[in-house]
Design a protein that fits this description.
The chain has a single domain (7-120), classed as Aspartate Aminotransferase, domain 1 (Alpha-Beta Complex), CATH 3.90.1150. The protein is α+β, with helices and mostly antiparallel strands. The chain is globular and about 45 Å long. 35% of the residues lie in helices and 24% in strands. The chain has helices at residues 7-12, 62-71, 97-114, 117-126; strands at residues 18-22, 27-32, 35-41, 55-59, 75-77, 86-90. It contains 4 helices and 6 strands. Strand 2 (27-32) and strand 3 (35-41) form a beta hairpin. A 6-stranded antiparallel beta sheet has the order 1-2-3-4-6-5, covered by helices on one side.
Length: 127
Amino acid sequence: MNRYPWLDVYLLDKPGAEKDYKEEWGWDRYRVGGKMFAAVCTPGKPHAAYGGRTLINLKCEPAMAEILRKTYEDVIPGFYCDKRNWNAVYLDGAVPDDELRRMLDDAYRLVFQKLTKKAQREILEAT
């Protein structure tokens, strides 16, 4: 269950954001400039610790990642990602909408800022 029905539209509304499906992983990926900033997945049986719950992986600054994990029970280290730079949020959890939106914005910003100035400019001019 996803208690954030606005999630997909919110992510795709960001300048240059694209969504694809990585079949081998079973992930819906959100990317900007070809680089992933978020991904929705449901870990399978080999990952029983996740209880079959759907989650979203989000790029995150390492210090903020730790703070968010301590603040919200439904924020955990990123699934199958670098745990210093990625958090995961259970989509059936209790993270407030405003906080999740801030996390989504931060994930996008972190990846967008790493793109070349030329790529950033092209993305912004295309919107």
